[in-house]
């Protein structure tokens, strides 16, 4: 390799290192937050699909429900604050995903099932199916499930009323 060129493997390693750094910064930020809120929780870090993923887990997930809030509203805000903390440290925009007490993991499962069911309905009727308004995270999960079912989908509307439409093949 000559100076000034990089291999794909080196670029992949640089990305992994950057994402691991994001996870470390996020973990430090969230540990401070847990201390301030006097909540017990362990922090688990991973890299999934080109983004850092951080989870707060506890033996008593009930205590962590305060960090999830109604319909995940507090979790969404906490994720944005964590992304801002990472941005402040690195200077780069973060796409970090945060989960608390397994809320997003459970939501992902439910939304995947919703996407598969909507795709099945479209296949049987031949008519588009409009779903209720969702967050960007929720829409992404549904789009992925619809695509895996062999159909296509689009997002329509304006935030916060943006929704998924599942379309016939």
Oligomerization state: single chain
Spatial gap, N to C terminus:
46 Å
How many beta strands in the DSSP annotation? 6
As a whole number of angstroms, the C-alpha radius of gyration is 19 Å
The gross shape turns out to be globular
What share of the residues lie within helices?
Answer: 40-55%
What is the CATH-assigned architecture of the largest domain?
2-Layer Sandwich
CATH superfamily label of the largest domain: K homology (KH) domain
Main β-sheet, spatial strand arrangement: 1-2-3
The tally of structural domains comes to: 2
User: What is the CATH first-level class name of the largest domain?
Assistant: Alpha Beta
Structure, described:
The chain is an alpha+beta fold and 169 residues long. It has five helices and six strands; from the N terminus they run αββααβαβαββ. Strands 1-2-3 form a three-stranded mixed sheet, with helices on both faces. The chain has a three-stranded antiparallel sheet with strand order 4-6-5. The termini are far apart.
């Amino acid at each position: 390799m000559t100076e000034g060129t990089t291999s794909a493997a080196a670029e992949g390693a640089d990305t992994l290192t950057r994402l691991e750094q994001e996870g470390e910064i996020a973990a430090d930020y969230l540990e401070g937050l847990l201390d301030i809120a006097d909540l017990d929780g362990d922090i688990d870090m991973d890299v999934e699909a080109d983004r850092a993923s951080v989870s707060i887990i506890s033996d008593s997930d009930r205590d962590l429900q305060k960090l999830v809030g109604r319909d995940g509203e507090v979790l969404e805000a906490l994720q944005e604050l964590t992304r801002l903390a990472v941005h402040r440290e690195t200077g780069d925009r973060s796409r970090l995903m945060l989960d608390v007490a397994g809320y997003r993991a459970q939501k992902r499962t439910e939304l995947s099932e919703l996407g598969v069911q909507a795709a099945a309905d479209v296949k049987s009727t031949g008519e588009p199916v409009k779903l209720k308004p969702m967050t960007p995270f929720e829409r992404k999960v549904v789009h992925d499930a619809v695509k895996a079912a062999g159909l296509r989908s689009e997002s329509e509307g304006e935030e916060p009323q943006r929704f998924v439409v599942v379309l016939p093949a």
